[in-house]
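Hey, can you fold this?
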Amino acid sequence: MEEEKTVDLQRLLFEQLKSHVISNITLVDAISDLLNISNDAVYRRLRGEKRLDVDELAKICTHFNVSFDALVGAKQQILHFGYVPLDLKNAIVYKQYMKQLLQSFTALAKANEKKVFFTAIDIPMFHFLPYTELTLFKVFSWSNSTGAFQGNFSEFCSMMVDDELIDIYKHLTAVYKVIPSVEIWTDRTFDTILRLIDYYFESGYFSSTDEALLLCKQLLEMINGINQWSTRGFKDELPGAAHYKLYLSGIELENNFVVMKRDQTTTCIIKLYTINSMVTTNKDFCNESMKWINNAMHKSTLISGASQKESFKFFNLLTQKVRYLIKRIESSNDLFNPANPPY
């Protein structure tokens, strides 16, 4: 019985590792290099014919950032999360962070069974990625709020952007389009980005009015793109396109979660400070998170593929909010009037 539990645990470990291995490197090769053993020896471990010893287990868990406690499902009130510090004083650190994100979602996209759920206190990052300036503005506002960068937006873009980063954005955009997804928004989800643009324009962080207006123009394009996905219920017009479901919650969401389902593995991401996040594969926590998400969906209105009246009202409201901000920026003398913006 104990032998069977060990084999099952080992099999579960290797199953989880599949989502951590870079796409052009097989799991067998990765383990072979890490443990300095032959491919045949790795296969014996994969099949459960050979048990991992303590040193091998420690090396694998450390290298792939897998929690052993979470793996065995220890019944204790302690959860193990993965967290990568993100220091934006160094553009290379951010680029590496985005590469890891691309690696993770590429693995998800290649899975036989896949789905991702968002509870969107803020707009999911993937909607920003087709728009380089808008994406960088989100990163800029986060880095400014943490004190990592003190210059203006133009200087930040000059420091961060290069062809490699833009290529990562493009690949992440393409990857997200093939993953079926469910997003739960509120009528305030869009307000965060509007308030940020408003604040940083008012505070003099843009080199020109045109910079702020470009972001607004990209927001309008984003709204149109999400509206198209929502109307179709799919992320593309081609046959076999990934499903897209957008829900509108009538109450404020309490958590900013991303839950990724990949074959038999579920991963829960808790968003922190807009950009960064903590990650866990703890089964109990992931199950509780999905229960909460399913309950939130049940209490929300499905906007995509149905409820045309609700859909029109929702996207029209978002458009009007952006146009209101555009007018405030274009008439910058009025920006400081004590008006109450609709966001």
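Oh, and this one too while you're at it.
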Amino acid sequence: MSQFLNLTIEKIHKGLTGKKFSAQELTQHYLDTIQEKDKDIGAFLHITEKMALEQADVVDKAIANKEEISKMSAVPYAVKDAIMVKDVPCTAGSKILENYTAVYDATCIDKLKTKGAICLGKTNLDEFAMGSSTEHSAYKTTKNPHDLTRVPGGSSGGSAASVAANECIFSLGSDTGGSIRQPASFCGVVGLKPTYGAVSRYGLIAFASSLDQIGPFASNVEDCEIVFNAIKGIDKNDSTSVELKQENSKFDIKKVKIGIPKEYFAEGIDKEVKEVVEGMIEKAEKNGAKIEEVSLPHSKYALPCYYIVATSEASANLARFDGIKYGLSVKGKDLIDEYFKTKTQGFGDEVKRRIMLGSFCLSSGYYDAYYSRAQKVRALIRQDFEKVFKKVDFLFTPVSPFPAFKLGEKMDDPLRMYLADIYTISVNLAGLPALSMPAGKVGKLPVGLQIIGNHFTESKILQAGKFIETIL
């Protein structure tokens, strides 16, 4: 099986076209790996073995007929179970959608299918993407491949863990307040949260519509870039999506100015995490980058601002799960009773908590005091970034104030759990792109570096990430 070690998208393409292995053999290898490893890790909720082998057969026939195949043909991937894959269950990690099967493909899945990539299955997540540890799933708890006693992060913990455990080449997740970047940091993989609108959200089960964004996980920055370029772009089914131009400008570290937000290195960050990230910044400086301390003064309000905006939007979005047309349906004595019983049994504690918070923030007499005010604070957070990006090209920050924590450690204290995303949520509030990539370790636990860029500068962030990989 040595031909399947340390594979990348480029190596798979060369292996297939050079007849070193077939798409069937490659797909079977990853299905066997999932069978062997996932009993311990619990990254997957559904395995799509039959569909994967059928897709592999199509690629093998194309190669046999000497047809040209795309770079992503037969590349095995996994999908967060909040993104629709036609004819496959889509539960969003919730009992309320336990019996729901997707009737259409999300736009990002449609694009990957067109390019011949092979879906191996759906990965675990915090219910409706609400959580930072993947312990809020209604089905199972996913474990961190680096230490099975610790969390993989969340809410896209299953997607991050599947890549870290080499159960697939890349995976898709969604990021509402750090749900790609934080698990990428905890699991020691690369995760990209694109600019809001860069990737269509059509086919993603909505949590907070003004914050959600689909993005990729991979084991290296180049693979992350290839996947992002495959799924990005405008979509008639998503009015917030935009067309991105491909930028191929040369990256020169000596012409780069990196901003270090002082607020991200103040109280609350683990000393060892701080040392790892600062060590990475020093390496960039030694290689010619200019470093400048900057300030994002309103970032201290980001956490309360986020939890008002996100829960308000969630309370509106989750109203559709009423058991009438699809999903769990619990009979009651009348329609209202049916709604109450279905939602009481179908939603978990964290989802109920956020729906109640959001409903309160939007209720008569409180809208102006909470939601309207939070949107004004959000505008100030966005302005902070606008000012900073007039002076610097990127911001380098930690992804999380601590490495992966123990399973169960923060379950009884929601506020401590929410603090896991303190360095990531401002990016969502401002709609910016950001990359999480491995920067080092604390013991055997990975620590991520977050590279934040201005709107629609994904290509520059990814170039910076590739450079950081070379100096690590």
